[in-house]
Amino acid sequence: MSDITIYHNPDCGTSRNVLALIRNSGEEPTIIEYLKTPPDRQTLVGLITAMGMPVRALLREKGTPYAELGLEAPTWSDDQLIDLMGRYPILINRPIVVTPLGARLCRPSETVLDILPQPQRSAFSKEDGQAVVDAEGRRV
Questions:
Q1: Is residue 106 annotated as part of the catalytic site, yes or no?
Q2: Quick one: three-class SS letters along 57-109?
C-alpha cells in the first residue's frame, strides 16, 4: 500500500501529469477518482487544513456550476462552500496529492515535486512537451 494518495481526474491533463511524475519517482499512489468517489466532509476539511489554504482557493471555476451558483459572492461561508464541494465534487480543484511530506493542490503539476519522498528516476516532460525534469532527475 502506497503512502501517497492522489485525488485524480483522468480527464485533466494536469492531473495526468502529476500522476506520471509520482510514478516517475518509483511510487504507485493510491488513486482516488474524486468525481466517482468524492471525499466526505471530514476528509475534505482535513485536506484543506493539511494544505493550509483558504477554502475559496480550492474552488474550481472553469467547467463547473461556480457561476450558476453565484459562488463569487463573498457572502458564502467556508462551511457552505465545503458543503457545496461535497454536493458538486467538480467544484474541487485538482489534483490534490498527499504524501508523508505534506499535502498540496498540485497546480502547476511540478508542485508535486516538493512533496515527493523519492527523487525523479528519469527525465520527464508534460503531455504538451514542456520539460519538467532532466535526465539526472533534476527540476528544469
A1: no
A2: HHECCCCCCHHHHCCCCCCCCHHHHHHHHHHCHHHECCCEEEECCEEEECCCH
Match 514542456 to its residue by C-alpha cell. 130
| Residue tagged active-site, from 6, 12, 18, 116 | 12
pLDDT of residue 128: 96
* Tally of domains in the chain: 1
Average pLDDT value for residue range 107-121: 97
Residue with cell 462551511: 79
Task: State residue 24's pLDDT score.
Answer: 97
**Longest Cα separation, the chain:** 49
Residue 36 belongs to domain spanning: 5-133
In a domain, 75, yes or no: yes
- Which residues are bridge partners to 105 per DSSP? 96
> Phi then psi for 30, rounded to 5 degrees?
-75, 125
Q: Does a structural domain hold residue 140?
A: no
Instruction: Tell me whether residue 138 is in a domain.
Output: no
> For residue 32, what is the domain's CATH number?
3.40.30.10
